[in-house]
Specification:
The protein is of the alpha+beta class. It is built from 16 helices and 10 strands. The strands form 2 sheets. It has a 6-stranded antiparallel β-sheet. A hairpin with a 4-residue loop joins strand 3 and strand 4. The chain is globular, with a radius of gyration of 22 Å. The two termini are 36 Å apart.
Protein backbone atom coordinates (compact mmCIF):
# COMPACT_ATOMS: atom_id res chain seq x y z
CA UNK A 1 0.00 0.00 0.00
CA UNK A 2 1.10 3.59 -0.58
CA UNK A 3 1.29 6.27 2.15
CA UNK A 4 -1.63 8.06 0.49
CA UNK A 5 -3.78 4.92 0.51
CA UNK A 6 -3.04 4.26 4.19
CA UNK A 7 -3.85 7.86 5.08
CA UNK A 8 -7.07 7.87 3.04
CA UNK A 9 -8.31 4.61 4.58
CA UNK A 10 -7.44 5.84 8.07
CA UNK A 11 -9.37 9.08 7.59
CA UNK A 12 -12.44 7.23 6.31
CA UNK A 13 -12.64 4.76 9.21
CA UNK A 14 -15.75 4.89 11.39
CA UNK A 15 -15.04 6.86 14.56
CA UNK A 16 -15.17 3.86 16.92
CA UNK A 17 -12.94 1.71 14.70
CA UNK A 18 -10.40 4.53 14.43
CA UNK A 19 -10.31 4.81 18.24
CA UNK A 20 -9.63 1.08 18.44
CA UNK A 21 -6.75 1.39 15.96
CA UNK A 22 -5.23 4.43 17.68
CA UNK A 23 -5.47 2.61 21.01
CA UNK A 24 -3.49 -0.38 19.77
CA UNK A 25 -0.92 1.85 18.05
CA UNK A 26 -0.51 3.69 21.38
CA UNK A 27 0.23 0.39 23.15
CA UNK A 28 -2.90 0.44 25.33
CA UNK A 29 -4.37 -2.71 26.83
CA UNK A 30 -7.52 -4.27 25.41
CA UNK A 31 -9.38 -3.27 28.55
CA UNK A 32 -8.43 0.42 28.22
CA UNK A 33 -9.27 0.44 24.51
CA UNK A 34 -12.70 -1.03 25.24
CA UNK A 35 -13.34 1.75 27.78
CA UNK A 36 -12.00 4.59 25.62
CA UNK A 37 -13.85 3.45 22.48
CA UNK A 38 -16.99 2.36 24.35
CA UNK A 39 -16.73 -1.23 23.15
CA UNK A 40 -19.20 -3.47 25.04
CA UNK A 41 -17.27 -6.75 24.98
CA UNK A 42 -13.98 -8.41 24.14
CA UNK A 43 -15.65 -10.21 21.24
CA UNK A 44 -16.82 -6.88 19.83
CA UNK A 45 -13.27 -5.52 20.09
CA UNK A 46 -11.97 -8.55 18.20
CA UNK A 47 -14.62 -7.85 15.54
CA UNK A 48 -13.31 -4.30 15.09
CA UNK A 49 -9.77 -5.64 14.75
CA UNK A 50 -10.87 -8.09 12.06
CA UNK A 51 -12.38 -5.22 10.09
CA UNK A 52 -9.18 -3.20 10.48
CA UNK A 53 -7.15 -6.09 9.07
CA UNK A 54 -9.49 -6.16 6.06
CA UNK A 55 -9.34 -2.36 5.67
CA UNK A 56 -5.55 -2.33 5.56
CA UNK A 57 -5.15 -5.61 3.64
CA UNK A 58 -3.38 -7.55 6.37
CA UNK A 59 -3.78 -10.84 4.56
CA UNK A 60 -2.40 -13.42 7.00
CA UNK A 61 -4.81 -16.38 7.20
CA UNK A 62 -7.50 -16.04 9.86
CA UNK A 63 -8.18 -18.95 12.15
CA UNK A 64 -11.84 -18.89 13.21
CA UNK A 65 -11.16 -21.54 15.82
CA UNK A 66 -8.92 -19.17 17.77
CA UNK A 67 -9.66 -15.53 17.01
CA UNK A 68 -7.50 -14.03 19.73
CA UNK A 69 -4.38 -16.00 18.74
CA UNK A 70 -4.72 -15.42 14.98
CA UNK A 71 -5.53 -11.76 15.56
CA UNK A 72 -2.40 -11.31 17.64
CA UNK A 73 -0.38 -12.68 14.74
CA UNK A 74 -1.72 -9.91 12.54
CA UNK A 75 -1.35 -7.06 15.01
CA UNK A 76 2.43 -6.64 14.49
CA UNK A 77 1.82 -6.44 10.72
CA UNK A 78 -0.73 -3.66 11.24
CA UNK A 79 1.62 -1.80 13.58
CA UNK A 80 4.47 -2.21 11.10
CA UNK A 81 2.37 -0.64 8.34
CA UNK A 82 1.72 2.47 10.45
CA UNK A 83 5.30 2.61 11.71
CA UNK A 84 6.33 2.99 8.07
CA UNK A 85 3.68 5.42 6.81
CA UNK A 86 2.21 7.18 9.89
CA UNK A 87 4.91 6.89 12.57
CA UNK A 88 3.48 9.79 14.55
CA UNK A 89 0.76 7.42 15.79
CA UNK A 90 3.21 4.82 17.13
CA UNK A 91 3.96 4.78 20.86
CA UNK A 92 7.42 4.18 22.31
CA UNK A 93 5.78 1.45 24.39
CA UNK A 94 5.05 -0.73 21.36
CA UNK A 95 8.15 -2.99 21.72
CA UNK A 96 7.24 -3.62 25.37
CA UNK A 97 3.64 -4.37 24.44
CA UNK A 98 4.69 -6.82 21.74
CA UNK A 99 7.11 -8.43 24.19
CA UNK A 100 4.21 -9.06 26.55
CA UNK A 101 2.09 -10.47 23.74
CA UNK A 102 4.91 -12.83 22.74
CA UNK A 103 5.39 -13.95 26.32
CA UNK A 104 1.66 -14.69 26.59
CA UNK A 105 1.99 -16.82 23.43
CA UNK A 106 -0.52 -14.67 21.59
CA UNK A 107 1.89 -14.17 18.72
CA UNK A 108 2.50 -17.23 16.58
CA UNK A 109 4.60 -19.96 18.13
CA UNK A 110 8.14 -20.22 16.76
CA UNK A 111 8.06 -21.62 13.28
CA UNK A 112 9.33 -25.13 12.58
CA UNK A 113 12.33 -23.47 10.95
CA UNK A 114 13.17 -21.76 14.23
CA UNK A 115 12.74 -24.98 16.18
CA UNK A 116 14.99 -26.86 13.82
CA UNK A 117 17.60 -24.13 14.01
CA UNK A 118 18.73 -25.38 17.42
CA UNK A 119 20.77 -28.00 15.59
CA UNK A 120 21.70 -25.84 12.59
CA UNK A 121 24.14 -23.09 11.68
CA UNK A 122 21.80 -20.44 13.07
CA UNK A 123 22.64 -21.53 16.61
CA UNK A 124 26.37 -21.41 15.86
CA UNK A 125 26.09 -17.90 14.37
CA UNK A 126 23.96 -16.71 17.31
CA UNK A 127 26.58 -17.94 19.77
CA UNK A 128 29.35 -16.37 17.69
CA UNK A 129 27.57 -12.99 17.50
CA UNK A 130 26.76 -12.80 21.22
CA UNK A 131 30.34 -13.78 22.12
CA UNK A 132 31.73 -10.93 19.98
CA UNK A 133 29.35 -8.47 21.64
CA UNK A 134 30.48 -9.66 25.07
CA UNK A 135 34.14 -9.29 24.08
CA UNK A 136 33.70 -5.63 23.08
CA UNK A 137 31.91 -4.86 26.36
CA UNK A 138 28.41 -4.63 24.90
CA UNK A 139 26.74 -6.20 27.93
CA UNK A 140 28.12 -3.49 30.20
CA UNK A 141 26.00 -0.82 28.49
CA UNK A 142 23.08 -2.89 27.22
CA UNK A 143 20.55 -5.06 29.01
CA UNK A 144 20.08 -8.48 27.40
CA UNK A 145 16.64 -10.07 27.13
CA UNK A 146 16.44 -13.64 25.80
CA UNK A 147 13.11 -15.14 24.71
CA UNK A 148 12.16 -18.25 22.76
CA UNK A 149 12.26 -16.24 19.54
CA UNK A 150 15.03 -13.65 19.87
CA UNK A 151 17.78 -12.02 21.93
CA UNK A 152 17.19 -8.29 22.35
CA UNK A 153 19.48 -5.52 23.61
CA UNK A 154 18.25 -2.25 25.14
CA UNK A 155 20.11 0.45 27.06
CA UNK A 156 20.60 -0.12 30.78
CA UNK A 157 20.64 3.56 31.68
CA UNK A 158 17.25 5.26 32.05
CA UNK A 159 15.93 7.39 29.25
CA UNK A 160 13.65 7.34 26.26
CA UNK A 161 15.85 4.98 24.22
CA UNK A 162 15.95 2.47 27.09
CA UNK A 163 12.35 1.52 26.29
CA UNK A 164 13.14 0.11 22.88
CA UNK A 165 15.42 -2.62 21.60
CA UNK A 166 18.27 -1.13 19.60
CA UNK A 167 19.61 -4.52 18.48
CA UNK A 168 17.77 -7.85 18.08
CA UNK A 169 19.24 -11.22 17.08
CA UNK A 170 16.99 -14.05 15.82
CA UNK A 171 18.38 -17.43 14.80
CA UNK A 172 17.04 -19.47 11.89
CA UNK A 173 17.95 -22.89 10.58
CA UNK A 174 20.54 -21.64 8.11
CA UNK A 175 21.48 -18.23 9.45
CA UNK A 176 20.96 -15.25 11.70
CA UNK A 177 18.59 -12.30 11.42
CA UNK A 178 19.93 -9.04 12.88
CA UNK A 179 17.56 -6.09 13.44
CA UNK A 180 18.99 -2.63 14.12
CA UNK A 181 17.21 0.58 15.09
CA UNK A 182 16.85 2.94 12.13
CA UNK A 183 18.19 5.80 14.29
CA UNK A 184 21.53 4.00 14.49
CA UNK A 185 21.44 2.40 11.05
CA UNK A 186 20.61 5.33 8.75
CA UNK A 187 24.01 7.10 8.58
CA UNK A 188 25.82 3.85 7.76
CA UNK A 189 23.72 2.41 4.94
CA UNK A 190 23.17 3.15 1.28
CA UNK A 191 19.64 4.27 0.40
CA UNK A 192 18.70 4.11 -3.28
CA UNK A 193 15.56 6.00 -4.25
CA UNK A 194 13.76 5.67 -7.57
CA UNK A 195 10.30 5.79 -9.13
CA UNK A 196 8.28 2.83 -10.32
CA UNK A 197 7.42 3.31 -14.00
CA UNK A 198 5.59 0.05 -14.75
CA UNK A 199 2.77 2.05 -16.29
CA UNK A 200 5.25 3.48 -18.82
CA UNK A 201 7.21 0.31 -19.52
CA UNK A 202 4.07 -1.67 -20.28
CA UNK A 203 2.29 1.22 -22.03
CA UNK A 204 -0.60 1.15 -19.60
CA UNK A 205 -2.90 4.13 -19.23
CA UNK A 206 -1.66 6.55 -16.61
CA UNK A 207 -2.66 5.75 -13.05
CA UNK A 208 -1.15 7.87 -10.29
CA UNK A 209 -1.29 4.91 -7.89
CA UNK A 210 1.22 3.10 -10.11
CA UNK A 211 3.77 5.92 -9.82
CA UNK A 212 5.38 5.42 -6.43
CA UNK A 213 8.71 6.33 -4.93
CA UNK A 214 10.64 3.25 -3.83
CA UNK A 215 13.78 2.93 -1.78
CA UNK A 216 16.20 0.09 -1.17
CA UNK A 217 18.59 0.01 1.79
CA UNK A 218 21.94 -1.77 1.69
CA UNK A 219 24.90 -2.14 4.01
CA UNK A 220 27.93 -2.22 1.73
CA UNK A 221 30.50 -4.55 3.31
CA UNK A 222 33.60 -2.37 3.89
CA UNK A 223 36.04 -5.09 2.84
CA UNK A 224 34.14 -5.48 -0.46
CA UNK A 225 33.50 -1.85 -1.30
CA UNK A 226 35.54 -2.16 -4.52
CA UNK A 227 33.07 -4.77 -5.82
CA UNK A 228 30.18 -2.41 -5.12
CA UNK A 229 31.89 0.43 -6.95
CA UNK A 230 32.43 -1.87 -9.94
CA UNK A 231 28.76 -2.87 -10.06
CA UNK A 232 27.61 0.75 -9.82
CA UNK A 233 29.91 2.15 -12.54
CA UNK A 234 26.93 3.47 -14.53
CA UNK A 235 25.96 5.57 -11.50
CA UNK A 236 29.41 6.84 -10.54
CA UNK A 237 28.37 10.48 -11.07
CA UNK A 238 25.47 10.00 -8.67
CA UNK A 239 27.34 8.08 -5.97
CA UNK A 240 30.58 10.09 -6.26
CA UNK A 241 32.51 7.11 -4.95
CA UNK A 242 30.39 6.84 -1.78
CA UNK A 243 28.93 3.64 -0.37
CA UNK A 244 26.74 5.29 2.27
CA UNK A 245 24.16 8.05 2.00
CA UNK A 246 20.84 8.64 0.27
CA UNK A 247 20.72 8.96 -3.54
CA UNK A 248 18.06 9.39 -6.22
CA UNK A 249 18.77 7.19 -9.25
CA UNK A 250 16.47 8.99 -11.69
CA UNK A 251 18.19 10.94 -14.49
CA UNK A 252 19.33 14.46 -13.78
CA UNK A 253 17.28 17.23 -15.36
CA UNK A 254 13.93 15.46 -15.03
CA UNK A 255 11.62 16.64 -12.29
CA UNK A 256 9.80 13.37 -11.72
CA UNK A 257 7.41 14.82 -9.15
CA UNK A 258 6.46 17.55 -11.60
CA UNK A 259 5.93 15.00 -14.40
CA UNK A 260 3.72 12.77 -12.29
CA UNK A 261 1.70 15.27 -10.35
CA UNK A 262 1.32 18.16 -12.80
CA UNK A 263 1.83 17.23 -16.48
CA UNK A 264 0.03 13.89 -16.39
CA UNK A 265 -2.73 14.40 -13.83
CA UNK A 266 -6.19 14.38 -15.31
CA UNK A 267 -5.54 12.71 -18.65
CA UNK A 268 -4.24 9.47 -20.14
CA UNK A 269 -0.78 9.14 -21.57
CA UNK A 270 1.15 6.34 -23.25
CA UNK A 271 4.81 6.04 -24.13
CA UNK A 272 4.23 7.14 -27.74
CA UNK A 273 2.66 10.39 -26.48
CA UNK A 274 5.39 11.28 -23.96
CA UNK A 275 6.18 15.02 -24.41
CA UNK A 276 9.92 14.92 -25.05
CA UNK A 277 11.16 13.41 -21.77
CA UNK A 278 13.54 10.53 -21.24
CA UNK A 279 11.12 8.11 -19.55
CA UNK A 280 13.58 5.34 -18.71
CA UNK A 281 13.38 5.23 -14.90
CA UNK A 282 13.94 1.46 -14.69
CA UNK A 283 16.80 0.69 -12.31
CA UNK A 284 15.94 -2.97 -11.85
CA UNK A 285 19.26 -4.18 -13.28
CA UNK A 286 21.31 -2.37 -10.63
CA UNK A 287 19.01 -3.51 -7.81
CA UNK A 288 19.09 -7.12 -9.04
CA UNK A 289 22.89 -7.10 -9.30
CA UNK A 290 23.25 -5.70 -5.79
CA UNK A 291 20.73 -8.19 -4.41
CA UNK A 292 22.61 -11.09 -6.00
CA UNK A 293 26.12 -9.88 -5.17
CA UNK A 294 28.21 -10.66 -2.10
CA UNK A 295 29.36 -7.06 -1.65
CA UNK A 296 26.37 -5.83 0.30
CA UNK A 297 23.50 -6.91 2.53
CA UNK A 298 19.91 -5.79 2.04
CA UNK A 299 18.53 -3.85 5.02
CA UNK A 300 15.15 -3.27 3.41
CA UNK A 301 13.13 -5.67 5.56
CA UNK A 302 11.03 -4.46 8.48
CA UNK A 303 10.94 -6.61 11.61
CA UNK A 304 7.24 -7.16 12.29
CA UNK A 305 7.83 -7.33 16.05
CA UNK A 306 10.03 -4.23 16.10
CA UNK A 307 8.92 -1.93 13.27
CA UNK A 308 11.37 0.82 14.29
CA UNK A 309 14.19 -1.46 13.07
CA UNK A 310 15.46 -2.80 9.78
CA UNK A 311 16.85 -6.31 9.54
CA UNK A 312 19.55 -8.23 7.70
CA UNK A 313 19.88 -11.97 7.07
CA UNK A 314 23.41 -13.36 7.40
CA UNK A 315 24.54 -16.95 6.94
CA UNK A 316 28.30 -16.42 6.66
CA UNK A 317 30.56 -16.43 9.71
CA UNK A 318 33.04 -14.11 7.95
CA UNK A 319 30.41 -11.50 7.05
CA UNK A 320 28.76 -11.81 10.47
CA UNK A 321 32.05 -11.07 12.20
CA UNK A 322 32.57 -7.94 10.10
CA UNK A 323 28.95 -6.84 10.58
CA UNK A 324 28.92 -7.31 14.38
CA UNK A 325 32.28 -5.61 14.87
CA UNK A 326 31.25 -2.73 12.58
CA UNK A 327 27.91 -1.94 14.23
CA UNK A 328 28.98 -3.07 17.71
CA UNK A 329 31.68 -0.40 17.76
CA UNK A 330 29.17 2.19 16.50
CA UNK A 331 26.81 1.31 19.37
CA UNK A 332 29.65 1.50 21.90
CA UNK A 333 30.86 4.86 20.54
CA UNK A 334 27.34 6.36 20.55
CA UNK A 335 26.40 5.20 24.03
Amino acid sequence: MTPKQVNDIFNKLPSKRRKVLVGFLAGHSREKIMIDADIPSDAALTGHLKELYKNFRIDTAWNDADDRRSGARKLPLLISLFARYMPELISDRIPEVLDAVEQEEAIAKPSQELVESKAGSGEILMSFATSILEQIGFNQKFQVNRTSQYTGYRLKKPGERAKSYLLVLTQYKEGLCISISRDILNPYVLELKFYDDVWVRNEYDYDEADCQEFNHLYWVIPSKEDIFLGISQDYKDIFSGESTGSFYLDPKGIDTDDVIHKHLQGFKLKRSEAPGFDWHFDHGDLIARLDQSDCCISMNNIDRLFPHTRKAYINSREILEEFIHYFGEIFMDNY
